[in-house]
Amino acid sequence: DHGHDDDHGHDDDHGHDDDHGHDDDHGHDHSEIVVLPEAGEAQLSAATESADESRLENEASREQERVETDQANQQAADQAETSRLEAQNNAAEEEARLEAERQVAAYAAEMARLVAQAEHVLTREYPWGEFSQKTVELQMLLGTSVDGVYGNATRQAHIAALADRGLFTDNVPSAPSPALASTQASSTSCSGMTCWNGYEGQNQAAVNSAINALPAELQRALNGVDIVNGCHPYAFASKGRCVFGVWDSAGWKADGTYGADWARSLWISNRAVEAGRLIDVAVHEAAHAYSYMIMRTCVNEATGETYRVDLRNLFGGEEFLADAITAYFNGANAFQNYRGTGTGLSQGEQDALTEMFATC
């Protein structure tokens, strides 16, 4: 072997470390030198972190305080609003209660006043058969027909109302008998119409003057008609008062029969004269006389009916026709008991009456 070692003095691994100086653990830090932070730097970092934590804690604390304060303020505001609304509601309820008490008191006072007023109206005295404003008030209270004249119908309702209230009937007037004939003179003797039941006579001259002043058309109907200043007996018996005027074609008596001496008579009472209605009542009653004496036989050739029938149909009846004739001659403001004072005539109504007077 020539004196040589088989491996020629060489190490089989050629003096190399099998891992060639590399650490088999390739994922680990194998630094052999570490630089430590200086003491001051470490303290500064710790202090900074401590300050940040303190600041954050303070901010959180302040935020919590703010939230709690806001909640407390909102709660206080809500409570204050609730208290205000309750106080407002209580005040409104109290005012409503007081107002209700005031209304009850006012109603009670008004009822007491009305009761006292009603008792006063019911217990005072009234004239029989004469117009009186007091009687108008009584009739309105009783709910009867209002004409201002105390008669049988008013008396019956009056007594019933007093009985309902437990009031005395001492002041209720009694129905008188129709006045017996009287004369203008003080003498008890009479003749002709002065002997008729219901004759008054005090205003006979004024009544005669009013009749003489009537339009010529109406005076044509009064030939042979008795003109009487008086209280017609049948009208008095049926109405319980002296009415303003009456046209009597048949001579009606107080007992409801007819054929008395005053057939075809025109009556105007003292009440009509005293009420200032003489002229208008004279025309109204003369219109009835004209309707009976002339119109009922005067034929309207255009219709084949009498003008009395046609004009009654036009105006709604005999009384309305007489009122219309009154308005025709005396104007709309003439006293019209049925059509209503102040009711004028339409042009058609005016023309119809003009045609009738021209024809008849």
Topology:
Layout: H1 39-123, H2 133-142, H3 152-165, H4 204-212, H5 216-219, E1 226-229, H6 233-239, E2 245-248, E3 265-268, H7 270-274, H8 278-293, H9 307-315, H10 318-330, H11 347-359
Parallel strand pairs: 1-3
Antiparallel strand pairs: 2-3
Helix pairs in contact: 4-8, 8-10, 9-10, 9-11
**Helix proportion:** 40-55%
Biggest pleated sheet: 3 strands, mixed
Quickly give the structural class.
mainly alpha
Strand order of the largest sheet: 1-3-2
| Shape assignment | elongated
- The total strand number stands at 3
Radius of gyration: 60 Å
- Give the helix tally: 11
Distance between the termini: 195 Å
Structure commentary:
By secondary structure, the protein is mainly alpha-helical. The protein folds into three domains: 57-123; 126-165, no CATH class; 194-359, no CATH class. It contains eleven helices and three strands, in the order αααααβαββααααα. Strands 1-3-2 form a three-stranded mixed β-sheet. The model is unreliable at 1-23 and 179-188 (pLDDT under 50).
Name the features:
three-stranded mixed β-sheet, 3 strands, disordered N terminus, 360 residues, 3 domains, 3% strand, mainly alpha, single chain, 51% helix, elongated
In short:
Helices cover 51% and strands 3% of the residues. The chain is mainly α and 360 residues long. It is elongated.
